[in-house]
Automatic annotation (TrEMBL):
Residues 487-542 have a biased composition (Low complexity). This is Glycoside hydrolase family 71 protein. It comes from the Eukaryota. Residues 484-553 are annotated as: Disordered.
Length: 629
């Protein structure tokens, strides 16, 4: 045992050779913090998007990367899909061998608050695994929603005194049996799950206060999130289209969290690409529920870099992040078009009705878009003061920035985005973003996701084949293909610098900007270069790049998918969770649109959503799985 764990830690050290070991103060140990139930850092992880993973190894990069950033445990969000247990087993196994912790977060979109036994028995199934997070020596669990759940019955079914911190809501759930509660509202909002409106505006701190008042001395788990944008149109059955104001939220919120010092925080999320609040890599293996339309070429890894020194400070109850910054780094983000750009003619939602039972569907620009600014946000994490130069298109701003973590916000302009830091007249950091701000609608869409970059540049992080599978479905332009198009930066094989963009960030013009300040830390992320590739079935010259033109149910998935997969894959839509591609080449032309959308039968899992939507809308709506909705 000892030998194998030494061996494993050797292997993982090699895997992370590129990572800079933090030189700031050592954080308080997980053991000490978990025993006290204080200063714990979690990150929400969607199991529902990774049904195509085939081994525990598919989780290793996520586990190592999160641990390296200081995240203590992943909150594994589960529904009731057929692959859930398979994936939980992989995740627990990978966590154990990477010295990470995990716990289950029950998603009550799928679980029923009336069925406490199902929740408890699922907890029991994983409770004794080595990677299970214990808090106060008790098995930890959480949820998304779930008010009304009988928590005593959960514990009875679990057979253990679960430390339960569900996402119950003040005034709705009962506090009697819980240990604490988790607040999901990580974004400024209107009190009704949409962006603030005049006269209806709640800050994230307002949510903190509502929970703290309600909880008394029970544990509060506070949310932290960078962004929110979702843009599903009639091409899927779960159409939704809105934003919450992101802006400088992640920087502001981390500073607030350090001041307030909550006992637990949960980052929302690692891999919810559909709502654009992922801080994990695009290359983390997952299938495409349609989100690739706005996530392709849009890495967010800089937000994990940004979080890292704040996590270290938070764990040590430090209210300043300054001494956790050990390397200079610039992190920047912006939207790739200005809010005024009109994409109505080609957008997937503009002028296009879709199912709106959820009340979350809007046509055209996402609901709440007016709350987003046309701005470039730049956070400097500096060991010493410097001069920051930001060139957004033709607009150049130069600004003195102090040591520590600092935010500078400048107006966004169309063109190249360039950043440089100099000291004493010498440039110490400089790069041009791989993503320009453009006046062309990307893939014809209102894409209000954020592009996040860093100087020095991070690793090349393309979506994998599965993560791109639905990109073109429902698009109204033909200029967009399902391939990553950002340059490799740095090149995957070469060692250092070079590549793209070494344009000089021309200083000269200086306008004024406002500065806010705080502190900091850093690290460049390990080099990834991992994409899922399932063994492609040997058709004659089976290049993996060819579209799929035949398939069946994926290994381990129910044969109930077979007909749907066979139909959909033959036309090039072969979602890798439920289906597997068995031949490649030119896909057939699907039957004309039936004008009706399809939904899974009640009780069927997420895996049916895209398939029923695609199949029924083309006239094949098998009654054993789907219905018209
Ligand atoms: C969808 O429902 C919400 C809530 O009722 C409403 O505000 C919105 O306008 C609806 N969307 C469309 C496209 O009708």
């Amino acid at each position: 045992m000892l030998f194998s764990s030494v061996l494993l830690s050797f292997v993982s050290t090699v895997g992370l050779a590129a990572v800079v070991t933090p030189r700031g103060p050592a954080p308080s140990s997980l053991e000490a913090r978990a025993a006290a139930g204080d200063r714990l850092v979690f990150c929400h992880f969607m199991i529902g998007i990774v049904g195509d993973r085939t081994s525990a190894a598919d989780y290793d990069d996520d586990m190592r990367r999160a641990k390296e950033a200081g995240i203590d445990a992943f909150a594994l969000n589960i529904g009731v899909d057929g692959y859930t247990d398979q994936q939980l087993n992989y995740a627990y196994e990978s966590a154990a061998r990477n010295d990470m912790k995990v716990f289950i977060s029950f998603d009550f979109n799928w679980y029923s608050p009336g069925n406490a036994a199902a929740v408890g028995s699922k907890i029991a199934q994983y409770a004794s695994k080595p990677a299970q997070l214990l808090v106060n020596d008790r098995v930890f669990a959480s949820s998304f929603a779930g008010d009304g759940l009988d928590v005593d019955a959960v514990r009875a079914a679990a057979g253990t005194d679960v430390f339960f911190v569900p996402n119950f809501h003040p005034g709705q759930g009962s506090l009697a049996a819980v240990d604490g509660a988790f607040n999901w509202m990580a974004w400024p909002n209107d009190g009704n799950n949409k962006a603030p409106k005049p006269g209806k505006s709640l800050s994230v701190a307002d949510g903190d206060n509502a929970y703290l008042d309600w909880l008394g001395d029970k544990t509060y788990m506070a949310p932290i999130s960078p962004w929110f944008f979702t843009h599903f149109g009639p091409e899927v059955s779960f159409s939704k289209n809105w934003v919450f104001p992101g802006g400088s939220l992640i920087f502001d919120r981390w500073n607030e969290v350090l001041q307030k010092g909550f006992p637990m925080v949960e980052l929302i999320t690692w891999n919810d690409y559909g709502e654009s609040h992922y801080i994990g890599p695009l290359s983390s293996p997952h299938y495409d529920d349609g989100n690739s339309k706005w996530t392709n070429d849009m890495p967010h890894n800089g937000w994990l870099d940004l979080s890292k020194p704040f996590i270290a400070a938070y764990k040590n109850k430090d209210t300043s992040v300054d001494k956790y910054i050990t390397d200079d780094q610039i992190i920047y983000w912006y939207r790739r078009t200005l809010g005024s750009l009109d994409c109505d003619a080609t957008d997937t939602t503009a002028g296009r009705p879709a199912n709106n039972d959820s009340g979350n569907y809007f046509q055209g620009r996402p609901d709440g878009w007016q709350t987003l600014e046309d701005a470039v946000y730049v956070v400097t994490l500096l060991t010493e003061p410097g001069t920051l130069t930001i060139a957004s298109g033709d607009q150049v701003v130069e600004q003195e920035v102090p040591a520590g973590a600092n935010l500078v916000k400048v107006p966004a302009a169309v063109g190249k985005q360039r950043f440089s830091l100099s000291r004493g007249g010498t440039v110490v950091l400089q790069d041009t973003s791989l993503m320009d701000i453009s006046n062309v609608c990307p893939c014809g869409l209102y894409n209000f996701n954020a592009y996040v970059g860093t100087v020095p540049a991070g690793f090349n992080d393309p979506l994998g084949e599965h993560g791109l599978a639905s990109l073109t479905i429902g698009l109204h332009v033909t200029t967009c293909s399902a391939t990553p198009s950002l340059g490799t930066n740095p090149p995957t094989t070469a060692t250092t610098t070079a590549t793209a963009s070494t344009t000089t960030a021309g200083p000269i013009t200086t306008s004024t900007t406002s500065t806010t300040s705080t502190s900091s830390g850093t690290t460049s992320a390990p080099s990834p270069s991992k994409t899922t590739s399932e063994p492609t079935q040997p058709t004659s010259t089976s290049e993996p790049d060819l579209p799929c033109n035949g398939g069946t149910n994926a290994d381990g998935e129910t044969g109930n998918y077979a007909g749907l997969c066979s139909f959909a894959c033959s036309y090039g839509y072969c979602p890798p969770g439920p289906c597997k591609c068995t031949s490649r080449g030119t896909p057939g032309t699907p039957p004309p649109p039936s004008g009706r959308d399809g939904c899974p039968l009640p009780g069927e899992g997420d895996g049916y959503k895209g398939l029923c939507s695609f199949a029924c809308s083309h006239g094949y709506c098998p009654e054993t799985a789907c219905q018209y909705c």
